[in-house]
Amino acid sequence: MKKLFTILCVALAAVASAAAQGGHSVSDSVVTENFAIYYRFDDTGFDQTYLSNSETAAHIKNYLLNSARIDSVTIYAWASPEGAYHHNVYLSRERAKTAKRFLLAHSPDSAKLNSEKIHISPQAENWPGLVRLVEENYHRHDRVKVLRILKDKTISDETRKWRLKQLDGGIAWRVLFYRYMPQLRSATWICVWAEVIDPLPEMQTMKAFATTAERPLPVMTDAVVPAEPKESRVPVAALRTNLLVPALNVGAEIPIGNRWSVGADYYYPWIWPDKTNKNCFEFLGGSLEGRYWFGKDRTPSDRLKGHSIGLYAAAGYYDFEKDFEGLQGEFVSTGLDYTYAVGLGRKKRVNLEFTLALGYIHAWNRTYSVPGPEGALYPDDGIMMFDYFGPTKAAVSLVVPIFGKEGRR
What we know:
Blueprint: E1 6-13, E2 30-38, H1 53-66, E3 67-69, E4 72-79, H2 85-105, E5 118-125, H3 127-137, H4 143-151, H5 157-166, H6 171-185, E6 187-196, E7 233-242, E8 249-256, E9 260-267, E10 280-293, E11 306-322, E12 325-344, E13 350-369, E14 378-379, E15 384-405
């Protein structure tokens, strides 16, 4: 499960009457201040050594020290939408608690700011912030489709995520994930309304934001944002051979989407006997299989790579002879196999697959003998049935993907 981050917004609102101020106008002494606090990956603690947190912490402490009175604080918390909802709720709640503890620890007077004056409101997933980022910065060809999905109020957030991941073969989701999600999960904005003794020189009066969607998103000054992915070529089929039976087999596989594939293999180790007919090894067999590939948020470039499990069916013919005594017959087999495939080389244009199968074999056996060199085959009477359950296949295969344009399959 992917780890998430939150955008934490603390609003400090001072509402005082003229009577309580001894006739002093509240509007003359209210300052709105914004602070950006950043969090490390899947961390709910306030690390003051991270990014600009040290300067921000000093600024907050100074503001708390110089505020004459603080009426209330409401802490809003969000997470970026790409992960599991329950974990987003957890992160936003814990980071809101962290912000509350920080404010209480650095309030010089409990009468000015205490626990009863601070309220937390975890919001989990910041979809409004993502909408605003897309509106301002997303200019790909599918912009209209992305915004339509984001603004569709008739679907659940999980359905919204699923539709975004399916759009344009997964490219749209990768753009959102790499370019925009960090801005949703990496900062805390603190909006302060307070009465101050002497406004600090560095403070800037700012307009308060009425809704979470209108609150500003942080600018990641030192974050490295990956370049927007280009339209790429992805695997649409693949050819393979089992290196454990070199040059005596060939197979093919075709992906169906990013999680499924179908494949076929043909084995032909047909070693002809010599003129004496003393020994031979002949085998012809084929198999068909359907396969499911594991992994969260798989993209077109992930096709035919990673961990998978498959269901196969196979059939074939065999003839094995040694010293003029032989066994021949037919077989059928079915079972499950596990495969792990990894890309080789810098560009990963070739894959290496490791496969182990467990299944059932039913065979029809016939024994025979050859009376002397260059003699004819004399089968014995009757057919023997053979049943077996256990390991049925081991393979280390070299796979050569065939690439096509994105969206072709």
